[in-house]
Amino acid sequence: MTTSGLSAVRAGLLDYQAAWDEQRRLHEAVVAGEQGDTVLLLEHPSVYTAGKRTEPWDRPVDGTPVIDVDRGGKITWHGPGQLVGYPIVRLPDPVDVVAYVRRTEQLLIDVCAEFGLAAGRVEGRSGVWVPEDDRGPARKVAAIGIRVARGVTLHGFSINCDCDLGHFDRIVPCGIRDAGVTSLTAELGRPVTVADVLPVVERRLPTLVQV
């Protein structure tokens, strides 16, 4: 699928390492001008990944394997029921990483809104959040962790659709102890699957490159 010069690739269920290899291949091609902006959309088998700011006490205490990666941020979980997006896009000069993160957040906020969930930003924290309410403190429904190399982005975002939230109990997700993690299904009280969310995310992808 191509929207506004941005190609979306539905990669299905893909091992984390295989997806990382494909990201790097695409990144080289986009940097070289051999390929246009491309977004990989996929699910991973269950895996924990740790960004560069992960502290030892953020990691699982039960020996669960963790893959260390070169994105920003701390530790998170990826797995079935969670839609992951890896945009490999060239940022305009001068490169403004914060503006790109804000555009990514806006894409995810708009996706949540389409399903009837009011979500937004929390000052000083990346990602997309359901605000504190009578059900509990603010909780993250979508996470963002990116890297920019030679003006082109790597890594990206994840949005929890109908995943098992118990996987987050083994870690301190994104290093944040005083807030929870949630999903579209948990918040809306009805099943919302990756298959449901995928076309909505695809339609919103132009938000990433609008400046």
Automatic annotation (TrEMBL):
Q: Per the record, a Pfam family? A: LplA-B_cat
> What CDD domains does UniProt report for this protein, alphabetically?
LipB
Fetch the Gene3D superfamilies from UniProt: Bira Bifunctional Protein, Domain 2
Q: Where in the cell is it found?
A: Cytoplasm
Tagged with keyword Transmembrane helix:
no
Which positions are catalytic residues?
Answer: C174 (acyl-thioester intermediate)
Reproduce the miscellaneous comment text: In the reaction, the free carboxyl group of octanoic acid is attached via an amide linkage to the epsilon-amino group of a specific lysine residue of lipoyl domains of lipoate-dependent enzymes.
Family, similarity comment: Belongs to the LipB family.
Looking up HAMAP family in the UniProt record yields: LipB
Q: What is this protein called?
A: Octanoyltransferase
Q: What organism does the UniProt record list as the source?
A: Micromonospora chersina
Q: Lineage of the native species?
A: Bacteria, Bacillati, Actinomycetota, Actinomycetes, Micromonosporales
